[in-house]
Amino acid sequence: xxxxxxxxxxxRYQLRRATTWLYFGALLVLAFLIVTANYASDARDGYFLVxxxxxxxxxxxxxxxxxxxxxxxxxGEAAARDVQTRMHLLTYPAPASKAAYLGGRFLAALALNSxxxxxxxxxxxxxxxxxxxxxxxxxxxxxxxYLTTLGFILLPNxxxxxxxxxxxxxxxxxxxxxxxxxxxxxxxxxxxxxxxxHAGEWRYVxxxxxxxxVMDYLTKWGPLERNVRLVLPEGSLLANxxxxxxxxxxxxxxxxxxxxxxLPETGSKPKPAQQPTTDKAALEQPQWGTGNARPLxxxxxxxxxQLRQLRLITGDTFWQLAKSKYGLxxxxxxxxxxxxxxxxNLKARGVPLLPxxxxxxxxxxxxxxxxxxxxxxxxxxxxxxxxxxxxxxRETGLxxxxxxxxxxxxxxxGGRFLAxxxxxxxxxVLLMAAGGVAQVALGGTTPEIGLYLQTxxxxxxxxxxxxxxxxxxxxxxxxxxxxGHLVTLAVYGFMVFAHLLGIEHKLLVYSASxxxxxxxxxxxxxxxxxxxxxxxxxxxxxxxxxxxxxxxxVRGREISVASRLQLARRRFTGSLIRVAAVITVAIxxxxxxxxxxxxxxxxxxNASASAAQRAVYEQRYRRYQNVPQPQLTGVNLRVELYPKxxxxxxxxxxxxxxxxxxxxxxxxxxxxxxxxxxxxxxxDQPARPVLTDVELGHYIYALNKPLLPGDSLRLRFRVTHQAxxxxxxxxxxxxxxxxxxxxxxxxxxxxxxxxxxxxxxTGARKAHGLAPRPxxxxxxxxxxxxxxxxxxxxxFEAVVGTDAGQTVVAPGTLRRTWTTLGRRYxxxxxxxxxxxxxxxxxxxxxxxxxxxxxxxxxxxxxxxIQIYYPPSMTENPARMIRSAQASLDYYTRxxxxxxxxxxxxxxxxxxxxxxxxxxxNITAGEGFFLLNTKADKRDFDLVTAVVAHExxxxxxxxxxxxxxxxGAGLISESLAWYSAMGVLEDNYGADHLPALLxxxxxENETPRTRAAKPLLQADDFxxxxxxxxxxxxxxxxxxxxxxxxxALRQLLAKHRPGTRPFATSLDLYQExxxxxxxxxxxxxxDLFRANTFWELATTNATAKQLKGGAWQVTxxxxxxxxxxxxAGTETKLPMQEWVEVGVFAPAKAGQxxxxxxxxxxxxxTSGQQTIVLTVPSKPAKAGLDPRGLLIxxxxxxxxxxxxxxx
Amino acid sequence: xxxxxxxxSIRNVSKKYANGVQALNNVSLNIPPGMYGLLGxxxxxxxxxMRTLATLQEPDEGQVFLGDIDVVNQKEEVRxxxxxxxxxxxxYPKATAEDLxxxxxxxxxxxxxxVRRATTEALLKQTxxxxxxxQKLGGYSGGMRQRFGVAVALLxxxxxxxxxxxxxxxxxxxxVRFLNLLSxxxxxxxxxxxxxxxxxxxxxxxxxxxxxxxxxxxEAQPLEAVAALNGRIWRKLTDKxxxxxxxxxxxxxxxxxxxxxxxxxxxxxDQPGNxxxxxxxxLEDVYFSAMTxxxxxxxxxxxxxxxxx
Lengths: 1206, 309
Fold this sequence. Notes:
The structure holds two protein chains of two kinds.
Chain A: H1 2-15, H2 18-44, H3 53-84, H4 88-91, H5 98-117, H6 119-130, H7 143-172, H8 175-195, H9 202-205, H10 211-220, H11 223-228, H12 235-258, H13 264-267, H14 275-284, H15 303-323, H16 328-345, E1 347-348, E2 351-352, H17 357-364, H18 373-396, H19 399-403, H20 409-442, H21 449-478, H22 481-497, H23 528-552, H24 561-571, H25 574-601, H26 607-621, E3 631-642, E4 647-657, E5 664-670, E6 677-683, E7 687-693, E8 698-707, E9 712-722, E10 740-743, H27 744-747, E11 750-751, H28 762-767, E12 793-803, E13 807-809, E14 813-820, E15 823-829, E16 834-835, E17 839-843, E18 846-852, E19 863-869, H29 877-895, E20 902-908, E21 915-917, E22 921-925, H30 942-952, H31 968-987, H32 992-1001, H33 1021-1039, H34 1041-1054, H35 1065-1075, H36 1081-1089, E23 1092-1105, E24 1111-1124, E25 1130-1133, E26 1136-1144, E27 1156-1165, E28 1167-1175, E29 1181-1184, E30 1199-1201, E31 1203-1205
Parallel strand pairs in A: 3-12, 19-20, 20-22, 23-31
Antiparallel strand pairs in A: 1-2, 3-4, 4-9, 5-8, 5-11, 6-9, 7-8, 10-17, 12-15, 12-16, 13-17, 14-15, 18-19, 21-22, 23-24, 24-25, 24-28, 26-27, 26-29, 29-30
Helix pairs in contact in A: 1-5, 2-3, 2-6, 3-5, 3-7, 3-8, 3-10, 5-7, 7-8, 7-12, 15-20, 16-20, 17-20, 18-20, 18-21, 18-22, 20-21, 20-23, 21-22, 21-23, 23-24, 23-25, 29-30, 29-31, 30-31, 31-32, 31-33, 33-34, 33-36, 34-35
Chain B: E1 8-16, E2 22-31, E3 34-39, H1 46-53, E4 61-66, E5 69-70, H2 75-79, E6 82-85, H3 97-107, H4 113-126, H5 142-154, E7 160-164, H6 172-185, E8 190-195, H7 198-204, E9 207-212, E10 215-220, H8 222-228, E11 233-238, H9 243-249, E12 251-258, E13 261-267, E14 277-278, H10 283-291, H11 300-307
Parallel strand pairs in B: 3-8, 3-9, 6-7, 7-8
Antiparallel strand pairs in B: 1-2, 1-4, 4-5, 9-10, 11-13, 11-14, 12-13
């Protein structure tokens, strides 16, 4: 009865609060936005139906994270309002039992929170049926999808969270305690899940919101499952729900037993014993002090006093904040965590990096609008701190005294702002220390203190300060603490996600600016100037916000909107008006200058505008795709680079030949797209422009005299690139003071219509009225197979001038280099034709050189290997040369000659680790030179392997050109990795290949759907870079490496460079078929033509010693084979094939597996079977397909330890 | 400080809250230097008036002048010479008296460290908190906290001191000491003391006003007001049951229990009748006369009668 009354009162009380409904609304809007802004576009791209159960569930788990903060307020109120309002003096003595009191309050909180989470399905429904989502993206309305989400995700989450928050708030007797509970849950769900990425099922079980499970369903489930399968508590999700149910009930029970109806002051810790004596002391002295004590001091009030007040208040406020639990101690802990995570984050594909300061900075700094883990933390804390600073005096009850003191509002606001800024400063000091300590601990580099100071206190602090001011202002304006937190969070969310709402111009999103970047090689380059302009603009805005903060600073009891407005009007006088006027002028001035740069000097187009432009390009010019065009066969360039001026001028001549059987009367020229101006286009025979589309870069010239088959003509042009000012994306970073690089793909004209410039995303194509087509053309689309970007073989020659101190790298032989008028010139020319893809580099490089001589040819066949690397990064070049030599050696023997006289790796500034293989010159990201393979615990040399892979592209991609359809990656990337395996196997000893295989196999552990097209239609990373190489390797282990390599040699021979048709995966398949004996044709089919999975397991393995010392091993084996189609339908197939069975000796110290005692192929069939075999010595481990040649994602059960029988 | 003490003049101030309560209704007062008592029951509008004087609230209408400073529009000037002890205030429980007083000294504009130290020391001694200056405020008793509030209010030598219900939570001894301190200060400044305890005013104030339901019922000097009632207050010891009859027949201004019976005070220019004895009036009779409408601006009398049962 009492419980009911307590419950009903609490429920009604909170239900009547406006904030409760505000929370409901916020949650509803959030769910709505997640569906419309995020999932709807995924659905348009065909990923799933937007109302699929798993989508609804994932909206629910995302919303659960936000709701935690909201729910905390509800639970905290219910648990601690009595103590905080001091009403507990009345409620505690009342004759209600603990069970009724706590139970009523808890159930009310739970009911309210359950009510609140109903906003999520409501918001989803509203988005589905009220936001204009196209009907074809929606499946039928399934109540079960909403009910399961509610019943298994949202309501349990509400229970777990309310229980935790309520318990912490009850026991700590502070509403704030529930936020602590919420934060802990949030961190467990979202951060721990992230940290435990490699901990298998555990990350699903420990996550109280079910976030990790559901989000992984979204990627792991096949298309069919994604659209229809309900999210039910099964497996780890069931374990999760049960675990947290038990935990919640346990917590509640604990709270019940710990809670006592006693006053908080006297509850646990006794009061200081001095209390009584103070009163006695007062009694002993009947008089208060007298007379003389009135200090007759009066300072003149003026700006000087106010500034001193500001200084003292700032200091005082800062120390109060810093000394609290949530101040310095918390920041120090967070900085410590940041230092710990640095080790794990300073890695590329699992390889540790030398912790050079610029890369550490890259991890530790981030703009407000693109937060990283550690910047989110300080941002959230800033919101919290701002609320405390604005509210502390009022919550303590000191505000009346303070507000009646002669302190101007600007000092009160300013003092708090400066204190908040100082907290940010302290955070940066701690973070800097963390970074430095981590660097020293990891070793290999020294922290660059100057750079730290510059970036942290010159750059990152500005972000913090901007946000501090914003958070303060919002709290001042909203004047309601928790609503203030919520609004600030919403504003922050807007800043981060504005681009998703189509607001991309950085003049419109508070604090937004282009990035600054710093790398050792290029320094800040031109990235700093635009950053400064934008930040200057936003700082001016921030000052205006500060003025608003001063105007609306709440002082006294007048809190109605009307009276605050009136007060603000009255405060807006004299100097404030002048300040505001100056700031406004600054905003207009800076904004105007930025706008001039972004929209006048540069062509401002946001994502949707540029998508529209691509669509128009296709609509207007696709019709010319198959118009006969002359082919580019020679390129002659005169390039002048002015790195300091960020300018490049190119004069070029193309030699075009009519290789078609018909006369050509017009030439289509597609000009460069990336901030270049193409002028002076002219032919060496009379021609006139018929179409000039500068915007889309398409020109048509009619030749007065048609170009007959076999005839040639020259095309001259001038291309200039001049970095002027900056665009909305920042400064142009192609021609740099050090580290210039640019490619013909982006800058120079091409002949004909360019399909690669089309819009690919299904949703965007539909929105712009383009004919539907897959993002990648089908392998079986014969017309599409006729296209490959930049396939021509050209003779290349270029003279490039640059600053005297720099080195230019371009394809071909460096014929001559000379210096005139303080500029250095380089003359490069190709000895053999190259594919029409090349880049120019100019920088201050160090060079490591090596040679490789083809043993089967004369000295003329010598290839110079050069690594152009940033001076000081000496770790990897020698290793790279060695790998390149081994690769050239192996590939020429296996696949055919290397046509060029040089092979170069050229460093490109940036944080990238990637490589890109153009003919002769391979671009290597600056980060690649920081890879510290010696520190890799896997004993794996990624640098050597990647170099072998890139060199292989000189055959696969640069000689053999693949058509731009599905399976293209199988030809370039899979063949490159497969070839690299051979290099390691032949040249690097026994351990290297298994290390590479196990590295490549790591990807199998990433959860993903088994639904996929067959490998021949590969079009994603996993298929191209992982599954493809393994399929080839498995085949080579069955039919022999020589046969596979022979097939590849055949493929190359049949598709000579520059000839058509382009190779497809079908051609590869045909060669492999030819090379494969009939008995293994089914395997070939399974590997390439079907998406096959094997499920192999060793169920038992026993051995007994025979007379004579040999051992008889008995293996129980299980095998299944199934095919999964691209929708996710699984079909079991009968299995009847040759699979390796292996038995291994005990492993020696430091090894995983011992020497093989037996490794033979056996005919394995579906189901359970037993194999008995004999080995010469004692076995330790045995299994089916122990080397993982077949595709089996559960590889751990393939082998088993052998039990010795008496 | 050769400055002449300033008077405070309140002209036609009205304030109505958003919930419809008319907290102040056309209040006009002239407050000379010295101690001024503002007497009224709970909810009379005292605190609203005090907060308005302390620049924390804005009147809907009317003006307030401290000397020639317009309190409503020249808040900053007022604050420079204002000391305010609110009816309720909190402290940072983890801060020591010395630190928090120092903080307030800064807020009051005493930014010179040496001066500030001297000032806080003097004030802590004056309020007898010097020995307890290092103690956390969370451990202070109600009286000590109140004294600390006085110390804060006295910072910067205010010309206008506003103390809102300062004696409410004090024990009798504390109260006496507190009032002594106030009277000392009243020698140089305008000190406005709001209270619902008649003794506070009678013991201390040279001028006073009685306020109820937002209206000033009486503005007078306590001694003169008491004198004006001379011969008009009568008392009778009666039973509880007889009270309604008495109330119908006479202007009963107060009725309190005395040894289980009821002592009734009646306002009447003449002997009201049988059993009534004349009483030497005191300020309490003034207060209750004013509250029941028997004493004060003549215009209010009929209205009060209408309301009276």
